[in-house]
Write a structure and sequence with these properties.
This protein is an alpha/beta fold and about 575 residues long. The protein has a six-stranded mixed beta sheet. It has a six-stranded mixed beta sheet with strand order 9-11-12-13-14-15, sandwiched between helices. A six-stranded antiparallel beta sheet has the order 26-27-29-30-31-28. The longest helix has 19 residues. About 35% of the residues are buried.
């Protein structure tokens, strides 16, 4: 199968009827692509500016705009999203927008559907210095601009074509279709789901495969080359009928060995993992036959020890100095193959998206009534997601006291949706009186993560009138973990949760030395409990006041919960007791 570089994608050496893209029974051929690119090229001839943003949900419309800009001598800018609020904020990065979406922006907006004049003139050749601009999440929280030359994109496509032929083994790629579960708006989807099929002369699907049943329907009996995210492969149900898969790629985040094995068995094609980044392009690959498979660098990629980590150089990376990697690499005996040992920055991969936690935190801190916020990656039920721990302002605490945490979170999630991709909006939320920090003043990440597993109540206020006493006002949201399964018909708060919370807040507020230093810092290890009484059932939605008193000489923590009324005044005692701590 021949290789077609981008300069030959529209050449006349292939017939007009050559399939380019499809959706269901609809097929778009090369003749249609040539026509649509030329029409848009005509429209761009009268448009000013040199940098135009591409905002398309479908890969074909994106491809038309990309080629029209290149043939016009202009630079495509790929923001990586289609959200109007964020485009308005990034307005200085482009001169105009090409899109079929209903956007209202303070810049020229070109809709290809509004231009239907005949396209008879031949297109000028692509310039030698043609390039495109993408953005990646930097550790500072601001999008980082990355320029890719047409030469580098062609080189990367050649590497991918050679790897694809190798992964296909004895199967022929003729008649194969390319299906993707990742977007063309990021480098992985752009190179694998668009550049690769165009370079190999394979048709690609117009719509992203969002769930396995849709993927199966898209195959429609054809052999496929599947470009997937780890999240999609993790959701595959092996009971579904498997299509014929020639080759299977995964990138954008870690793919567990159990998920890789299950997907490979279902599709009868071993998963090929791809390692790389927007700044570097593809760096290495591994075909998944076992949990300890090592990464194999592409020919032409070199790794060098450098101050602060590992630096990569290749024909895909601009500049002889290469790119310093955020990942830690551990090399095998041959000095070439390697394993990954974690990241050194605050950029994480969730689903197929590379997300900056700093960027998400900036958006969180800009929300009304949030005084401080931190975002962190979580793994829940085997899936990677995001959590947010927020500290509310006094006004925010009043809003919370008058409502519920789920209602407040719904408002925040809607507001964040104007700026962030859905996968970047935190799914799990916790409210804290203060963000836990280490003795050196840095965030205590272990304790932050602990908030999502202890399942604390919503803290409305805290008071420490003395070094050995504390009072906390706690709202029991109905979504609290402790209510699940504890009498489903009439949920109540179990006593073990009340004891656990007393210990938790003791550690937060009272586990320190007494004034004057005559008492050692108390240990938090549980030793026993005495005089415990659970007098009233506690129901979802109620508000409790927790009274804590630390009796250091006796190593006793006295706790008492009282039920508060609508005015947050103390009512009857719910429970009380003494917790003995280890000396």
């Amino acid at each position: 199968m021949p290789f077609f570089p981008p300069a030959r994608w529209l050449s006349r050496e292939r017939p007009d009827a050559t399939p380019v893209a499809w959706q269901g029974d609809r097929c778009l051929d090369l003749g249609q692509l040539r026509h649509d690119v030329t029409v848009l090229w005509h429209a761009l001839a009268d448009a000013g500016g040199t940098r135009w943003a591409l905002c398309f949900d479908d890969a074909y419309g994106f491809l038309v705009a990309l080629l029209a800009l290149w043939h016009s001598g202009k630079t495509p800018v790929i923001p990586g999203h289609n959200r109007q609020a964020l485009l308005a904020e990034q307005r200085h990065l482009f001169d105009g927008v090409i899109s079929t979406l209903p956007l209202a922006l303070d810049c020229p907006l070109l809709d290809p559907r509004q231009h239907q004049q005949p396209a008879a003139l031949p297109l000028p050749p692509l310039a030698e210095d043609a390039r495109l601009v993408l953005f990646t999440s930097g550790s500072t929280g601001r999008p980082k601009e990355v320029t890719k030359t047409l030469r580098a994109m062609e080189t990367e496509s050649r590497w991918l074509a050679a790897l694809t032929r190798d992964q296909a083994g004895g199967d022929t790629l003729a008649g194969c279709r390319v299906i993707s579960s990742v977007t063309h708006q990021h480098l992985y989807g752009l190179t694998f789901a668009l550049f690769l099929p165009m370079s190999l002369g394979l048709p690609f699907t117009l719509e992203i495969a969002r769930y396995p049943e849709q993927f199966i329907r898209q195959c429609a009996g054809h052999p496929v080359l599947f470009i997937s995210s780890p999240a999609f492969l993790a959701r595959i149900d092996p009971r579904l009928p498997a299509p014929r898969c020639i080759a299977l790629f995964s990138a954008g985040g870690p793919l567990s060995w159990p998920d890789a094995r299950a997907a490979g068995q279902w599709l009868s094609a071993a998963v090929t993992d791809i390692y790389g980044a927007t700044e570097t392009g593809i760096l290495a690959w591994r075909r998944r036959f076992g949990e300890a498979d090592l990464w194999q660098p592409f020919d032409g990629v070199e790794f060098h020890a450098a101050a602060g980590g590992i630096r990569a150089t290749s024909a895909l990376i601009a500049g002889p100095e290469g790119q310093l990697l955020d990942d830690r690499l551990v090399f095998g005996e041959d000095g070439r193959q390697f394993s990954l040992a974690g990241r050194d920055d605050r950029v994480v991969n969730i689903e197929e998206k590379r997300l900056s936690l700093a960027d998400i935190e900036q958006r969180l801190n800009a929300l009304p009534d949030i005084a401080e916020a931190v975002a962190l990656p979580l793994t829940r039920h085997g899936r990677h997601t995001l959590g947010a721990v927020i500290v509310l302002s006094p006004a925010g605490k009043e809003r919370l006291a008058a409502g519920s945490l789920p209602a407040l979170v719904r408002q925040y999630r809607r507001a964040l949706g104007a700026w962030l991709e859905p996968v970047a909006v935190p799914r799990y939320w916790r409210v804290a009186g203060a963000l836990p920090r280490t003795a050196r003043g840095k965030y205590d990440w272990d304790r932050l993560k602990e908030l999502f597993f202890i399942m604390l109540p919503t803290e409305i206020s805290r008071l420490t009138p003395d070094w050995n006493r504390a009072e906390l006002l706690l709202r029991l949201d109905p979504a609290l973990f402790w209510f699940r399964g504890h009498f489903p018909a009439r949920p109540i708060l179990p006593g073990v949760a009340q004891v656990d919370w007393a210990l938790h807040y003791f550690r937060e507020l009272l586990a320190r030395e007494a004034p004057g230093g005559d008492q050692p810092a108390p240990a938090v290890q549980f030793s026993g409990i005495e005089n415990v009484k659970f007098q009233l059932p506690v129901k979802p939605g109620q508000t409790l006041r927790l009274h804590l008193e630390w009796q250091a000489p006796h190593r006793l923590l006295r706790f008492r919960y009282t039920l508060c009324d609508a005015d947050l005044m103390d009512g009857p005692t719910v429970s009380s007791g003494k917790i003995m701590l280890c000396p």
